[in-house]
Amino acid sequence: MSDSSLYDIVIIGAGPVGLLLSVCLSRWGYKVRHIDNRPVPTATGRADGIQPRSIEILKNLGLKSGIMAHKPARVFEVAFWDPAPEGKIVRTGTWASCPDFLDGRYPYTALLHQGLIERVLIEDIQKNGTVVQRPWTITRFETNHANPDYPVEVDLKNLDSNVVDTVRTKYLFSGEGARSFVREQLGVQIRHKDPISHVWGVMDGVVRTNFPDIKMKCTIHSDHGSIMVIPRENNMCRLYIQIASSTDPDFDPRKTATVAEVQAAAKKIFAPYYVSWDRVEWYSVYPIGQGIADKYTLDHRVFMGGDVCHTHSPKAGQGMNTAFHDAINLAWKLHLVESGFANRNVLETYEVERKFIAETLLDFDNKYAALFSQRIPSAAEVSDAHAGSESQKDNPFVEMFKANCEFTSGFGVAYKSNIFNHSLEHPFQHPLVITDSEKLRPGRIIPPSDVTRVVDANVVHLENEIPFNGAFRLFIFGGQKASPKKGGHKALADLASGLSRPDSFYSRFSCKNSTRDTHYDSDNPHSKFFSIALTLAAKRPEIEISNLPELFQAYSGRIYADDRRQMKALDAKFGAHAKVGLTGDEGAVVVVRPDGHVGVAIRLVEGQGTVEALEGYFKGFTTPSSFVGSESGLGGGKAHVRAQL
Amino acid sequence: MSDSSLYDIVIIGAGPVGLLLSVCLSRWGYKVRHIDNRPVPTATGRADGIQPRSIEILKNLGLKSGIMAHKPARVFEVAFWDPAPEGKIVRTGTWASCPDFLDGRYPYTALLHQGLIERVLIEDIQKNGTVVQRPWTITRFETNHANPDYPVEVDLKNLDSNVVDTVRTKYLFSGEGARSFVREQLGVQIRHKDPISHVWGVMDGVVRTNFPDIKMKCTIHSDHGSIMVIPRENNMCRLYIQIASSTDPDFDPRKTATVAEVQAAAKKIFAPYYVSWDRVEWYSVYPIGQGIADKYTLDHRVFMGGDVCHTHSPKAGQGMNTAFHDAINLAWKLHLVESGFANRNVLETYEVERKFIAETLLDFDNKYAALFSQRIPSAAEVSDAHAGSESQKDNPFVEMFKANCEFTSGFGVAYKSNIFNHSLEHPFQHPLVITDSEKLRPGRIIPPSDVTRVVDANVVHLENEIPFNGAFRLFIFGGQKASPKKGGHKALADLASGLSRPDSFYSRFSCKNSTRDTHYDSDNPHSKFFSIALTLAAKRPEIEISNLPELFQAYSGRIYADDRRQMKALDAKFGAHAKVGLTGDEGAVVVVRPDGHVGVAIRLVEGQGTVEALEGYFKGFTTPSSFVGSESGLGGGKAHVRAQL
C-alpha cells in the first residue's frame, strides 16, 4: 500500500463531533482523511444551541469570534409558561440559563444553526490542510494488529463515482450520527434508559407575534398542548412541538405533521397571543428515543462519539455540546499517545469519562420534565452567597436545581477520579497535593479570573490564556509569600530549578531548542507537551520579567499580575489567587489537562517537594520509554518528530 | 444634465475621513459618488492607532468586530524610558492609555495598519451600494446657487482613461489628505501653531529583541537619540524616529534616511538591549508640520475634513481618530438637513465644533513633549475616588495630566455650548433642564453602564444600544419613583402622552406607519429622527412591557432594567441611574445627539413640563416647515421620502 493511502486517522461524518476532532488533529499536524456522505454541508436548521461552557471551549480554540460573527441569538433566561383560566397562558417563572453562582465567563446560550457553526470549523480544517470529502461513505473496516503501525483497514466509497478507496489508518473515528454503520458493524448495542420515544416537529422561521417572551427560551404548557420556543439568529425563532409519544394509545413512530398543522397547533398554544409566520426557513419531523451505546470503542483503534453514542430529546439543548466534549476529550488523548508522551492505555479513559457524562445527561433528560413541573426556586434560595451554609445543603430541591443548571450550561462536566484526575483514591499520593479545595476540583474546570499580562499590560482571562494546543497546562500561582515586594521568589526559583533538571518530567519531554525558533512562542518554548502560565501576587509594575528564573523568562508572554479587581472576589487583595482558593501565603501549581479540566493541584513550597509531587503525578501516565536513553532524553527528539507527523 | 450625473454628495479621497462619511451616508440611502486618486486601497502602513473612544464609535456603527477580527495589538499602557548611567536606558514610569478614572468601555488603543481598517469600511460602503472609484481625481469644482437643488458642479477625471466626467451634486467633500486640491482652490490658508516642522521616519516590521517593553507603547530617550515604539498586529512593531527638525542648523525638509540607517540608529538607542529585524513590512519618511485650516467650508456646500484641515506630529496617535470624529460630526448634520428635519444653518456647527477640537489637538501636541519630560503622577494622585476633592483640584499638574489622558483617549472631545449643546447661555431655558450634573455634560458623551434588556434578558451596554442611525436618542431613566414596584408610572405616562400628541416635536416628524413595517424595528418605530431607550429602576422580572404606555411598547427591544451591579457604582441600588447622576427619586430624559454626545438632560416629572422642555430644545434647530400643514404633519411624509433618496 502506498504512503498516500496511509493516514493517522480516518474520520467518518462532518457533524460537530467529527469536525471538531478534525480541527484539533489537523492543527497538530496529523494526516486526516475526513469524509461525509452528504453532498454539501448543512445549509440550515439542525442543532443550534452552544452552551456557556462550549462557548469557552470554542474561545480557547480561537473559533468563538468566527461563530459570533454570525450574530447568534443569546439566551440569558428561560421562561416558563403554564395554563391559566379562560384558556389563557401565563408566565409562572423565569430562570437564568447560567445563573450567577456558576460564574461562567459567557453566561448565555448562543443560538445559531448548525450550518454556520460547521462552516467555521470547516474553514479552520481546510486552513490546516485537511479536506472534507463529499459525498463519501464507509463500506467496510477491519482492525488487524498484524500491521502495528496502521492496524485499521477501511474501504471508503465515493457516492458520485462509486469508486472504492481502500486505506490504512492508525485510528478510525465514527461521527456518523444516530444511524451509524460503524457502530452496527461492531455490534455495539444501544441501551435505552427510558423506553419511551417521541416524534418531534421542529420549525425555524421568522414569526410575527405579540407574545412577550419570543426573544427568550420558553417552555409553554397550555390546555392545547406544549411547545418549546428558542430565539435564533436573524430574528428567527425555533419551535419544538411533540407530535407523538410512544405512550400514545395509537403511537406510530412514522407519524408526521405538515408545516401548516404545526403552525395551527402553535397558534392554539400561544393564544390569546397572536402568532404568524413571515417565512419558514427549515422544518423537520423526527422520531427520537433515549439511547446510549454500550461501548465507545472495542479495541481503542476504532472510536465513536457524538450522536453515534448517545441520543436524547432536544429539550435541554445538549446534543452538539456533548459532541464537542467528546471530540476534544479524544483529541488530546490520541495526540499524547501518538506523539510518544502518554501510555497507550490512557485511551481507555475516553469511554470511561465520556460515557459517564452521557449517562448523566440521560438521567438529567429524564428528570427535566419532572423538575420543571414543580416550582422554580427563587434566586435567593440558590444564591451562592450561602453556598456553604447548612440551610441550603438541607434543601434537596435547590441542590438538584443547581446541579441541573450546572449540567445544562456545561459546567457540570465533572470527570471522576482516574489517572488524570487526582483524588484520595489515586495511586500516587503526596502531602503537597491539595485535596480539600472547593475551588480546584480535579475533573472540573478551573475558575475564571481576570489578570494583567505583564509583557503588554493587557487585561486578559487567565483561564483562557493557554490555547487548546494539546499540551498540559501548569498554572502557577506564586502566592503572597513569593510576591516580588517581599523580595522572595525562593519557592519559584526552586520550582524552576527542579523543572530544569535534565531528568525531570518537564525536561525529558522537551524539544532540542536548536530544532526550532522559540523567540515568538510563549506557549511551548521548551516542549510541545507543557505550557506554563505564571501568576504573581503583585501589581504589574512591580514585576520585572528579567528578574524571574530563566525558565519562566521563556514564557514571557504568559506571566501575569494578580492586580485586577474580580467581581466575584471584591474583597480579595489578590483576586485570581482567591478565586482558586489561595487566600493564605502559599502558592500552588495547578496542573490542567489540555481540555481545561483540573488534573491535580499541588502546593508551591520551597525545596523540591513541589516538583516531586508533579513528577509523581505525571509518572502515572507518561511513557517509560521517554524516561530513558539519549534518543528521547534531553531533547525528546523522537517524541517531537512524531508529534510533527 | 441627466439624472445619472446628479449626486447627493461627491466625496474625494478614500482615507479614514472620506470612507467613514461614505459609510454613514450610503447606509442612510444617499446617492454618493466616491473617488480616490490611488489605484488601489492602502496595502499596509500609514495610520494605525484606534483610540478608546474611536473603538466605541466603531462599535456603535457595527464596524468594531470586523476590525477586531484582524487581531490588532492592544495598548493598555505607555512606558517611558530615559537615559541611565553607562549609556544604558531605564524605565522611569508607565501610565495607562485610558486610566480607570476615564471609565472607558474599551480602555486600550487598538493598533493595526490603516489598510485593514479601510477594508472593513470599504466592504460596508459597497454593501450599501456605493463604489469607491479609482484612480480618479478632481480637476474643477464650482458652486452656483442658481441651481438650488444641485448647486455644486464638479469635474472628475479618470486617471487611467483621462476621461472627464462632469457631475452636479448637493455637497462636495474633500478628504484628500494634507495636499488638498479643494482647499487650494478655495484659497483656504493653513495656519501653523508651531512654526517648527519635523522629518519623521516610520518603520513597521517584526523585530527580535530582549527589550522588555516591546509589546507596549514606549517613548525611549537615550544619549543616542529618541524613538517611539508601538506594538502592532501580527507580532509587528512600529518605530517612529525623528530624522530632522527645522530647528536643526542645517535643516532640510527633504532630508531622508534609509531603512538601514534607521535600524542602525534604533540599535544604538535600544542598547544595551539587542534588536534585529526578521522583516520590514513598511517604511516611510515624511516631513510634517503642525497646521490647521482657517476654514472647513466657505459656503456650507463644499466641506473639508481630516488631514485636509489639520496636520500634526504622529506622536499622540490622533490623526485617524480626529478624522473619524470629523466624518460622523458632518454626516448626521447633512442627514438631518437633507431629510428636512433640521434647519440648514446647523451645518455651521460642523466647523465650529471640529475646528475647536483640532485647535485643542494642536495645543496638546505642543505640550506633549514638555509634559512627559516632567514626572508622571502616581495612580493615587489621579484616582477618581477623590475626583471632587479640593486637594486634587489644587494640583494643576495632575489636572493637566488627566486632561491630556482624556484627550488622547478621545473622551476629551467636549463640544462647546451651541444650539445642540445646552448650557446656561443657550437661548432656550427651562427650569427642568439639568444644568449642574457632573455626569451629564452637554457636548460630552454619556457615561457607560450595563443594563438588562427586558425583552430577551441580555446584559447589554446601554450607551451603545441605539446604533448610529442618524436619529436623536432619547435616553429615558424612569427614576426610583417610577419603579414598577412603587406602582407608579405617572411621569412616564405623562411623557408618553405628551410625545404622542399630534403637534409634539416627536409626532410632527413621525412617518405614516402604513408606509413601512415597524414590527421588527425597535430603533425607529415611529420616526426616522428619534430613537428611544427606556431604563427602569427595577429588576427585569418586575417589568412587564405590556403594562407600559403604548408609545414605549413600540420600542419593546429598547427597554432596560437597571439591575446590574456596576463596577464603578458598586454601592448604588440602581447603577445605571447612579452613573448618570440620578441618585434620588427623579428620573430624566437625556437627549443624546446622533453621534453620542449629550445635547440636554431634562428632569422627568409628572405633567407636561418635561415634554415642554424637550419641545423648546428641539425648536431651536428643527425646520419650521415641519411644524405646519398636512404634508409633513402626522406622517412627515416629505421628510421621510427625502431621507430615502
Report on this structure.
2 copies of one chain form a homodimer. The longest helix of chain A has 26 residues, at 348-373. In chain A, strand 1, helix 1 and strand 2 form a beta-alpha-beta unit. The first copy, chain A, is built from 17 helices and 27 strands. In chain A, the strands form 5 sheets. In chain A, strands 1, 2, 8, 9, 10, 11 and 19 form a 7-stranded mixed β-sheet that branches. Chain A is 26% helix and 25% strand. Chain A is globular, with a radius of gyration of 26 Å. Chain A folds into 4 domains: 5-72 and 112-191 and 291-357; 197-287; 377-412, no CATH class; 444-642. In chain A, 50% of the residues are buried. By secondary structure, the first copy, chain A, is α+β, with helices and mostly antiparallel strands. The interface between A and B is large, with 36 and 36 residues.
Radius of gyration of chain A over all CA atoms, rounded: 26 Å
Q: State which percent range the strand residues of chain A make up.
A: 15-25%
Q: What structural class is derived from the secondary structure elements of chain A?
A: alpha+beta
Tell me the distance between the termini of chain A: 18 Å
Q: Please, what is the average pLDDT of chain A?
A: 89
Total domain units of chain A: 4
The proportion of residues forming helix of chain A, as a percent range, comes to 25-40%
Biggest chain contact: A-B, 36 and 36 residues
User: In terms of per-residue confidence, which ranges of chain A show pLDDT below 50 for 5 or more consecutive residues?
Assistant: 384-392, 627-645
